[in-house]
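Key idea: predict the complex, not the pieces.
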Amino acid sequence: MSASPLIEIRDLRIRFHGDDGRITHAVDSVDLSVANGATLGLVGESGCGKSVTSLAIMGLLPKQSAEISGAIRFDGLDLLQTPDPTLRDLRGDRLAMIFQEPMTSLNPSFTIGDQIIETILRHRGGSRKGARERAVELLRRVHIPSPERRIDEYPHKLSGGMRQRVMIAMALACDPRLLIADEPTTALDVTLQAQILELMRELKAASGAAIILITHDLGVVAEVCDEVAVMYAGEIVERAAVDELFSAPQHPYTVGLLGSIPRLDHRAEQLATIEGMVPNMAQPPAGCRFAARCPFVIEPCTAAPPPLVEVSPGHLSRCIRAPLERLVS
Amino acid sequence: MTALLEVSGLVKHFVAERSLFGRPVAHVRAVDGVSFSLEAGKTLALVGESGCGKSTVSRLVLRLIEPDAGTVRFDGRDLLALDAGGLRKFRREAQIIFQDPYASLNPRMTVGQILTEPLALHDLVPPPQRRARVAEILRLVGLEPRLARRYPHEFSGGQRQRIAIARALAVEPKLIICDEPVSALDVSIRSQILNLLRELQDRFGLAYIFVSHDLAVVKHIADHVAVMNLGQIVETAEADALFASPRHPYSRALLSAIPLPQPKAKRTTVLLEGEIPSALNPPAGCRFHTRCPFVIERCRNQAPALLADGTGHATACHRTAELPSADAILPTAGGFSPALAKLVAAFSRKTEGGSPAGVGIQGTASTTK
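Result:
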C-alpha cells in the first residue's frame, strides 16, 4: 500500500486461442500491485490463472496463441508495450523468476557456474573472472557448501534442494527489483522447504526486492507473505493483508480453502469440502464464477459478474454477500 | 486384540551397482529392520522424507516386492510362506491406492471394465450381477453409476482417485495401503478424498497404512504414526501422543518445518542443516546424526535402539531423556479465529445439504460387511 508501487497490473486479460478455434479465458480483469520490499502471495488451485499471470509479467507467453490486454507497469515501463530486446534486457536483471521444477529449468549440459556466469556477463558485462567470483559469492549466499568446488558441477550431481538454491542464486545474480517465485518449494521435502523459505526471507531482508510468491499452499503464504491475492477461475476473488485474510476471509472460496486444509493447529472431525468443479473457462458463467459451488449463493449472484469491492480498508472481495460475518451472526 | 498385520524385522536392500561380472558392489539400504503392527479398522501412518523407505515398506507388506529378511503376518498367516494361490487370496484382502491417479488407471479400459476386472479375477460376483455391483461401488465413492461407460481421461484428478479407491474397495479388502493418495491433488479436492477415506473406514472397518510426507494430513487421519528416516523407524506412537510431544529430533524437525496457515503463529522452526544423506551409504551410528542439532559423540558410533516406554511410545535416540521440551516447536492451538470458525462451520453446513463426500447417499445397501 505504498505511494508508488514497484509493479502495477491494471485490468490484465489473457485469452488463449486454441487450434480448434476455442477461446479460453485464462485471466480476467486482474488488478495487482506490489510495493518495494513487499511480498505478495498469489494463491489458487490448478488452472486458476496464477502462473499465467506471472508469465505475462515476464513476457513469456506465446505470442501466436495468447491475446493479452491491460497494462503491467514496472519501473516506468508498460511491459506489455515493451519491445522484445528491452524485455530481454530486463529479464534476469531487474525482473527474475524461479520455477517449480529445478531439474527442468537448469540446462543439463552446462555446469551451474557456466549458467550463472552467463547471466552476469549478459547483463553486467565485465570479465569472466570477475563474473566467476560473483557466482561463487552468490552460491555462498544461498548456503551451498564449498561453492568454489560446486560451481564446476553439472546439475545432475546436485539434489533437488541444491538445484533450487542454484536457481535462486541465478535469479539473484543481478540484484532484481522483482522476484517471481512460482511454487518454489512444491517439489521439495518439508525440511528443505523450510530451508528455502528461510533463505527467501533472509534474501528479501538483505536486498529489499519485491517478491510475488505463487503457491497453492496457504501455510507457505502465512509464513512469508505480507499481502495475499486469492485467484479463482481467472479472477482475483479476494485481496487482503495476510493477517486479515486468515482471520476474517471475505470470499466464500477463501473460506472453503481455509476450511479444507488439514492443520496441525486445529483438529476438525470433518474437513470442509468445496463441492462441484471449476467452470469451463471456454464459456465462463455469466454471474459470479464461484456461484455454482458456493453455499451462500443467492439469486443476484448468477445475474451479473460481481465487482471486486473494498469490504474494509485494504480488504477487497468479489462477493456481493460480503461482509460475510453478517451471514453467520 | 490380535493385530491384523504384524511386520517384524523387515529388510530390503536394492542392488545399486554391479561389478563387471554381475556381482553386486553397492546396495541401497531402502528398508533396514522395520517392525510394526496394525489392528483391524485402524490407520497407521508411515511418515518421512523422499527416500526414507516408506513406499518400499508398503510394497513389501503386499509382497509386490520380496523382502531380504523379516516376516509379515496378516490375519495370522505368514505371507512369505504363501504360494501363488495363497498370495492371490491375500491380495483380495489387501489393496493399494497410489499417488498418481493419472498413471494407475489403464487408459484403454472404461471405468466399468476397471471395476469389473477385480470382481471377475477373484470370482466374487456372478457375471449377471457384476454391473449392479459396479454401480453400487461407484455410488460408494460418490460417483454416478452412469459414469461406468467413460474412460479415465474424461475425469478430473480427484475423480480418478475416487475410481482408484473404488477399484480397491471392489474386492472388499480388510487393509488398504494408501501411498500418498492426496499429494497430487488440489487442496479442496484433497479434503474430499480424506473425508471419503475416513467415512469408508468407519463404514467397513478398513485398516489403512497411510504413507505420506505431510504431517498435517497424517494428524488428521492416523491413529498411530511411525516416523521413518533412511530405512528405519525412529519414532512410533499413538498419533495424539506423537503430535502432543514428539521426542525424536527428526520428528520434531519434520513437525516444525510444516508451514502453519496462521500468520502470527509463534513457534520455533528447527532448521536442519545440510542435505538428506543417501541410503546408498547411510551414516554410521544413528542415521540422523549428520543433521541432528543434539548430536553427541556416541551418536556417531553407536546406532540407537527403538525403545518403548510404558505407553508404547517408542523412540530411537540415545538422548531421549535429556532432550529439551518440544513445546516451543509445537503449534499453538486455536488456529481458527472465532470469525473463521463460524464461517467454515456455515460453509460446511450448507454444502452437506448437497452431496457429502459420497458415502451413504442414495441409500446403498452394503454387502461388504
